[in-house]
Design brief:
Blueprint: H1 3-11, H2 14-26, H3 71-79, H4 83-94, H5 101-114, E1 122-124, H6 126-136, E2 139-142, E3 145-149, E4 156-161, H7 166-170, E5 177-181, E6 184-185, H8 191-198, E7 205-211, E8 219-224, E9 226-229, E10 233-238, E11 242-247, H9 254-267, E12 272-276, H10 285-295, E13 299-305, E14 311-316, E15 326-330, H11 337-347, E16 352-355, E17 363-369, E18 375-384, E19 400-401, H12 420-436
Helix pairs in contact: 2-3, 6-8, 9-10, 10-11
């Protein structure tokens, strides 16, 4: 095809371009005296995006539209098979910088999921999906920190660096806002994409730029990536034979770690237990269900309903029940699987919730792997507590409300004796133990 002829077609006027785009979707223009020749859309290739409607010409009613026999129209209807192809060719011919077909396609796929207006539904590239699967197994190579994103502002913050990990050693603090990764502004990006950028091969370096409250300028931190084992469970025996279990994530490895922690504390003579779910952003539904099955009597743990009203129930399968006095710590960063755990304990009156109202994520996502290694994550259902409560947007309200002291909110490591929320839970359990004697 003669490039000069192509340039003449594509630069003749805005109205010609508009008409060409409309031709793709309407099946061709007709002479004023004729009726529509074809009301259907032109067939797109299997890997193209779904075609839209034929649109309107508001604001261009006076523009001339080529007749059905015009060479420009014939060229466009034969050359382009979809609006996507039209856009790709315009970018190829006129966009001043370089790009690739893969980058354009990835942008289109991500844009389609973003158009849902759901911050939890997204498209994963092969690299992002691999990083996601790596994280859920409890071991990955990265900077060693939990990250959270505000669903309204899309701002990402550091929840807590893992003690002894690369981010901790670099000086990251809870509440640091992630601004750039290797010089790229990540404001507003999907959290999984940003996390994938911070992960990488062991021994490689990544520069994470953060904004910290009280500091005027952004802070650049060069961090050397290394293998990180997510400390999903930590446990110890506190004074008065009160056990303490901290759960930071619900991953594949968490279930056995949780059961082993309880068995270990029982062997030490545990008389009561505190389970700490603060700053736990959630994880796998299967993991939290298995852990609650270990705690609850036979009955409902949680159930979900999709848009068709189809209901899926998750139940405890035996009559074994955790019989010791129990307190569960939650806060505004306790989300998703953490809220399923806390709400079930509350509904069964198996323990007392202490802290502040949880995050309020009461919806479930499913990940659909695609044949090329990419994947799509979609919000597919809403979950309900054993008593039928939906906590989406409202969170789980604690039985005893205690806010963490302001001076502790920026600390990575909070000692037990200064942790006023933990101390409130211990005091509640201790009083119960005294009354039972």
């Amino acid at each position: 095809m003669d490039k000069k002829f192509l340039n003449r077609i594509l630069t003749s006027s805005f109205s010609v371009l508009l008409a060409a785009a409309l031709l793709v979707f309407a099946g061709g223009c007709t002479k004023p005296s004729e009726g529509p020749k074809d009301s259907g859309m032109m067939k797109a290739e299997a890997n193209d995006q779904t075609n839209g409607g034929s649109g309107t010409e508001d604001g261009n009613k006076g523009d001339a539209v080529p007749s059905a026999t015009a060479p420009e129209e014939k060229f466009v209807t034969e050359f382009f098979t979809s609006k996507m192809e039209l856009l790709e060719n315009l970018i190829e011919w006129y966009y001043m910088d370089k790009t690739t077909a893969d980058a354009l396609q990835t942008g289109a796929y991500k844009g389609m999921l973003e158009a849902l207006g759901d911050p939890y539904s997204c498209y994963y590239t092969a690299e992002e999906y691999s990083a996601l699967m790596e994280s859920s197994n409890g071991v990955y190579c990265g900077i060693g920190s939990t990250v959270q994103q505000n669903i309204n502002t899309m701002i990402m913050t550091i929840v807590k660096p893992f003690v002894g990990g690369p981010a901790y050693e670099a000086g990251m603090l809870p509440g640091d806002i992630i601004y750039k990764v290797d010089g790229k502004d990540v404001t507003g990006m999907d959290i999984n994409s940003v996390v994938a950028m911070m992960k990488g091969e062991e021994g490689t370096k990544v520069t994470v730029t953060v904004i910290r409250e009280g500091v005027d300028d952004p802070i650049d931190m060069e961090i050397t990536r290394r293998m990180v084992e997510v400390p999903t469970i930590e446990h110890e025996m506190l004074k008065n034979n009160i056990g303490y279990i901290q759960i930071t994530e619900f991953d594949d490895v968490t279930v056995d770690q949780f059961k082993n922690a309880i068995k270990s504390l029982r062997a030490e003579g545990m008389q009561a237990l505190v389970i700490d779910l603060r700053d736990n952003g959630g994880g796998l539904l299967t993991a939290v269900v298995d852990m609650l099955d270990y705690m609850l009597p036979k009955g409902m743990i949680v159930y979900t309903e999709d848009k068709y009203g189809a209901r899926e129930e998750y139940r405890s399968t035996d009559d074994d029940v955790f019989e010791l006095p129990l307190a569960v710590l939650i806060n505004g960063n306790s989300a998703s699987a953490s809220e399923i755990f806390a709400a079930a304990i509350q509904d069964y009156k198996l323990g007392t919730l202490v802290g502040t109202t949880s995050f309020g994520k009461g919806i479930v996502q499913s990940v659909f792997p695609l044949s090329d290694g990419t994947a799509v994550k979609l919000t597919v259902s809403k979950y309900y507590t054993p008593n039928g409560r939906s906590i989406h947007g409202t969170g789980v309200t604690p039985d005893i409300e205690v806010d963490l002291l302001d001076e502790l909110k920026k600390k990575v490591v909070i000692e037990h004796d200064e942790d006023n929320q933990l101390q409130a839970a211990l005091q509640y359990l201790l009083e119960g133990l005294k009354e039972s004697k």
